[in-house]
Amino acid sequence: MMRTITFSTLFPSSARPAHGIFVANRLGHLLASGAVTTSIVAPTPWFPSTHPWFGEYARHAAIPGFEEVSGQAVHHPRYPVIPKVGMHLAPLLLYLGARRTIGSILRGGFNADLIDAHYFYPDGVAAILLGKTFGKPVVITARGTDINQIADHPLPRRMIRWAAREAAGLITVCQALKDRLVEIGVEAERIRVLRNGVDLEVFQPVDRETVRAKYNLTGRVLLSVGHLIPRKGHHLAIEALAALPGATLLIAGMGPEQAHLVALCRRLGVAERVRFLGQVPHADLAEFYSAADVLVLASEREGWANVLLEAMACGTPVIASKVWGTPEVVADPAAGMLVADRTGPGFAAALMQLFTNLPNRAATRCYAEQFSWDMTTAGQIELFRSVIARTSSLSGATALAAY
Questions:
Q1: Helix (H) or strand (E) holding 237
Q2: Rounded to two decimals, what is the model's pTM?
């Protein structure tokens, strides 16, 4: 059995159960294969207080140093985050914060074959430093804003290129991210596209009439899911709702933009037709997907948005911004529609068009069924085996002894 250290700041915790759920989902299916065992290191920013006055920052302080998440042991070493200059220092600070924990794991007898890092910057760069310290090969997965946003900055871009050269394996979750890596100077033949899948057992249609009655929903129902930040475009869903009399918008998620979004609802006169659901447990989203007529994803940037496939697996078509990897997900009329005009009126027009000819919900579910996790898991196993075959086990033992 192969042994990995899963390394990412994007991973759920007891205080932030939805954070990085897409990393946990892919890992869960990989572990279920029986080919891999792992030790999870999910660093979290250091913060001194759990007082609710500090909002989102206080949730970092509430995360324990070690806990069990979905049956897996997770280490949460702390690392400092420095405002303004933090972007350039983040890889080094992350490396220093995690080094002791990973050294302890290795000395404790878990002789990992490789480090499996998720998110290229700062996580992937820090993982390469850790790999050099402990003599372990590193596989890095690019997931979205690490490449389609952070790589726009000159110094992070240089560090991403360096980490890509030093990595033993490279993965992107969509072709668009691979194309961007190639554009900034990474060799195309070194990059493997392994798109995210969807858990077809967790996300499946729930009886619509029952769940709509449960939540007192009538008429057209729109659903927008994601962290409440500007990039996710919830404000565009609200603006579109203003042009759709009688429709209801459900917004699932938490974040710093909530007060702004509530104020926008009042200003546009739609406050009575918008429900803020807060943080919905991941598995419970199936009810809301099933209750909705359409999922709206108005994001500015996405790698491979899992919410799209989750909604489709529940039979619900989607309306989504035509950005980055999203056209690779929404690639059939049964899936829904793409919106090139990323404005409130643009989404309103697309919604009105879709409502004139909604896809059959069974067809939408059938489309989603082609996106199981099986191929992604098989691709990871194949890549990990090839990486391990190319590396010497002696180098890891030597580096650990030196450390």
A1: helix 234-241
A2: 0.84
Predicted confidence (pLDDT) per residue in 349-388, tens digit: 999 999 999 999 999 999 999 998 998 999 999 999 999 9
Helices 374-390, 21-32: crossing angle, 10 deg rounding: 80
- In DSSP notation, 76-128 reads --EE---TTTHHHHHHHHHHHHHHHHHHHHHHTT---SEEEEESIIIIIHHHH
- How long a stretch of residues is the chain? 403
Which CATH number does the domain 208-368 belong to among 3.30.2130.10, 3.40.630.10, 3.90.740.10, 3.40.50.2000?
Answer: 3.40.50.2000
CATH 3.40.50.2000 for domain 2-197+373-402: yes
- Mention every residue, 6+ apart, whose C-beta is less than 8 A from residue 309: 196, 197, 198, 203, 329, 368, 371
Using 50, 70 and 90 to split pLDDT, how confident is the model at 395? Answer: low
The domain ranges of the chain are: 2-197+373-402, 208-368
Q: What is the DSSP string of 336-379?
A: EEEESS-SHHHHHHHHHHHHTTPPPHHHHHHHHTT--SHHHHHH
Domains 2-197+373-402 and 208-368 share a fold: yes
CA separation for the pair 348, 8 (Å, rounded): 37
| Residue appearing with tokens 């983040």 | 90
pLDDT in tens, 130-156: 999 999 999 999 998 899 889 999 999
SS3 44: strand
Which tokens go with 136? Answer: 């372990």
What is the distance between the terminal CA atoms of the chain, rounded to a whole angstrom?
26
